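HUMAN: Please help interpret these tokens:
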Amino acid sequence: MRSATLAICLALTAVADAKPAADLTSTMLAAVHDAAGCGTPHPSYGGWCKVADGWAKGTAAALPNTALVGATLALDKSAPVDLMTAPVLLSGLGIRKGAANLAHYRFDDTHLMAKTAAAIGAITAFLLGKSDKVAIAKPLADLVAALPAAATIKLKRGKHGWTWQGAVPAELRKVGPLWVVVELPPNGSGIALTVLTERFAAE
């Protein structure tokens, strides 16, 4: 069993200037909005509309001391956003005493690969309002539940969200009942977009 961070976020050591980063985030979220069909009667990927359209109104709400589970899209600005083919990873976020521990999971074991795919499906159903919590396999739930204990990257509260400047600079915002993280490589090549919820349990 092993975990791996998104390739788009490897070896990042510094955050881009605030304005270019904000502009890139806005541009990429607008592309997600269009790709998901947001604003149409029947959006093809409606769960991501809550993320793409809600980020701008997100807040630096009080931090929970808990684990959250979610899904991450890796988006390259040099390519059109295609939500049918875009890489999606299972992710977890642990928060404890103002510190964070964000992990993205990828496995070689075929059994865990199937469990991960099922978990991402459960997250999608939750985002669409088809369930009131995310049920994931116990080995995955145990991994996510262990994240808060290893949370060491300090969060800084800003006007709209919480930021951290670890190996992967990021911003965390509360968007409705969800938490959303945007990770930004300093070279401005794209973003990693993660949506998370505290409402999960082992099945």
Observations:
- Residues 7-202 form one domain.
- The chain is about 25% helix and 30% strand.
- Helices lie at 18-36, 47-54, 110-127, 138-145.
- The CA atoms of residues 133 and 202 lie 10 Å apart.
